Amino acid sequence: MEYYFIIQSAFSKVFFYLTTKTLPDNLFFTMMNNIMESKTTISFANVAANYDNGSDVLSDVSFNISAGAFYFLTGASGAGKTTLLRLIYQLHKPSTGTIKLFGHDCEKLSRDEISKLRQKMAIVFQEYSLISHMTVFDNVALPLRVRNVSNEKIKKLVTKTLEWVGLGKYADAYPMELSGGQQQRVSVARAIIIQPSILLADEPTGNLDDENASRLMELFIQMNKMFGTTVILATHNKKLLETYKFPVITVDNHHVSFAGAVTEKDANNARKWKGPQPQNYFNEISKQFEGIGKA
After folding, report:
1. 138-154 pLDDT, tens per residue?
2. Phi, psi (degrees; rounded to nearest 5) at 283
3. Confidence of residue 289 (pLDDT cuts 50, 70, 90)
4. Three-state SS for 159?
């Protein structure tokens, strides 16, 4: 909604100049550029990345991703998918090039400013990254406690989120008591509970059966639709790619390419989750977010 008003305002200014006076040189193009930048959540310009000054894992990567987009991320093992996600989340610095998040040039930001920027994002790691001495409930609640959310609201949010990912009865369990697939769902729950503006997921369905993979996919889709969350989901699962017709980012030979655009027909043909309705879940959880605000 906020982007609608930004665009409406910019076009109103252009229309005013066009109808009342001569448009100053380059004003139209400046305004259009501002509109594009306001809609761009993630921007890479000639980015390269390596480790320990070795050969480039990624080279000359340039792209813009708009707010509210949903992309699959594919590529062979070791191609650089995880590196790309780490660059976006600012866990790894590029060797060359410019990365902008929410319009901010990350190279020019302080450590504290980067930390604040990360609060708008969430990442689901392939290796789960759960805290072993904390219960499932406390692992999922951690991002809310960092944001000083009240205990009453934390209890409601965490309980609802764990129910959705099918782990309601494991709230008091510890990570090592869970299977790999269950730990993955705890990691997802922890990521989505802050209602992030950008959600990065590294093989989130890799250890899940088809039913739970579908459940998580519908959750990601509803986050994208209802909250406008920008989602980038890395996967090797061809079934997911064929079932959910989202555009694809492919990492190959150190470079990144984009392919495919979802059509209304594709969206209508996408397989739907047959369990509890995601819409109801998000209506309920959105009410609990009142007073917290979007990350």
Report:
1. 999 999 998 899 999 99
2. -60, -45
3. low
4. helix
How many CB atoms lie under 10 A from the CB of residue 231?
19
**3-class SS of residue 98:** strand
- In the 8-state DSSP scheme, what is residue 147? T
Which tokens is 145 given?
A: 């406690």
- Stated as kind and residue range, the H or E segment containing 172 is none
What is the rounded distance in angstroms from the CA atom of residue 134 to the CA atom of residue 22? 65
Interatomic CA distance for residues 155 and 162, integer angstroms: 11
- Burial of 160 (C-beta count, 10 Å sphere; 0-12/13-18/19+): middle
Question: Across the chain, what does the average pLDDT equal?
Answer: 81
Residue 275 has pLDDT above 50, yes or no: no
Is the Cβ–Cβ distance between 250 and 74 less than 8 Å? yes
Strands 70-74 vs 255-259: parallel, antiparallel or unpaired: unpaired
Handedness of CA 38, 43, 46, 51 (dihedral sign): positive
Q: What is the four-CA torsion angle of 194, 199, 205, 207, rounded to 10 degrees?
A: -70
pTM of the model: 0.77
> Residue 209 has what pLDDT?
83
What tens digit of pLDDT does each residue of 168-198 get? 999 999 999 999 889 988 998 999 898 899 9
Contact criterion met (CB below 8 Å) for 231 and 201 = yes
Q: Which residues contact 244 (CB under 8 A, 6 or more apart)?
A: 72, 217, 221, 270, 271
Say which residues have a Cβ less than 8 Å from residue 126's Cβ, sequence separation at least 6: 82, 202, 203, 206
Is-contact 63 258, C-beta < 8 A? yes
User: Quick check: helix, strand or coil at residue 281?
Assistant: helix
The residues, ordered by sequence, that sit 6+ positions from 8 with a Cβ below 8 Å of its Cβ are none
